[in-house]
Amino acid sequence: MSDIQLVVFDMAGTTVRDTGNVAKAFTDAFHAFNIDVPLTTVNQVMGFRKIDAIRMLLPGGNSLLPEQIHEAFTRNMLAWYQNDPELQPLPEVEAVFLLLKQRGIKIALNTGFTRAVTNAILQRLQWNVPQTIDMVVCSDEVPEGRPQPFMIETIMKQLGVSDSKAVVKVGDTKVDVEEGRNAACGLVVSVTTGAYSRSELEAYRPDFIIDSLAGLPALLDSLSELETRI
Predict the structure, then answer these.
(1) 7-23 confidence digits (pLDDT tens)
(2) 146: domain CATH number?
(3) In degrees rounded to 5, what are phi and psi of residue 27?
(4) Which of 79, 91, 117, 134 could disulfide-link to 113, CB 3.0 to 4.6 Å?
């Protein structure tokens, strides 16, 4: 891991357990306005800034409707993240955070959620800056969300990482891969614990696909050893 300075993780489906709750919050928000959106269609826009995802799913029409649906979605997500007992980190995530920090690697989270929803997650999981993670950036804090690189670039600037090749991006969706590529990250890793299966992720050509974040340290170690031999 000697050349890696920063790992940027997605949240829901990557570090935070998601059993379809985000997708359900989407469909429920659309249903409130008498619009049916299949779950399979919703899964295709996971990872995007949520207002952008809603616009992608919504046929043309009332320009105020995306904002209204987004407000309903945000209420649904806040209610779930603030109260549901099932909310928890994915297995080994906190152990991976600790190991990376012990090795001097900075840890950041970025997300398609707003700051309000993100804070609800962080508070429930008791993930603190800088004790647990070094930084969190939300999609409503940058000019554009994924696949644009602004969240990663903001993190790099704030944490003093100048070389994007020293950054690893980890996520569970197509748009996480695209974000990592657009930010010129040195390594883009997909994980199968979220919205996409391994076969679906393979189509977007991340550098590596792992089935659990527990496998990330070993992957980084193996790459470091390979570079040393070369």
Answers:
(1) 999 999 999 999 999 99
(2) 3.40.50.1000
(3) -65, -40
(4) 117
Which of 153, 146, 53, 58 lies closest to 108, judged by CA?
153
What is the per-residue pLDDT across 181-196, written as a single tens digit (0 to 9) for each? 999 999 999 999 998 9
Q: Taking a C-beta distance cutoff of 8 angstroms, is the pair 4, 168 a contact?
A: yes
What's the pLDDT tens digit per position in 65-119? 999 999 999 999 999 999 999 899 999 999 999 999 999 999 999 999 999 999 9
Domain tally for the chain? Answer: 2
How far is 145 from 139, CA to CA, in rounded Å?
A: 5
d(CA 88, CA 118) in angstroms, rounded, equals 14
Same domain, 176 and 68: no
Q: Rounded to two decimals, what is the model's pTM? A: 0.93
Distance, in Å, from the CA atom of 23 to the CA atom of 18, rounded to the nearest integer, reads 9
Asked if residue 1 belongs to a domain, the reply is: no
62-92 core/surface letters (b: 16 or more CB in 10 A; e: else): eeebbeebbebbbebbbebbeeeeebebbee
Residue 164 within a domain: yes
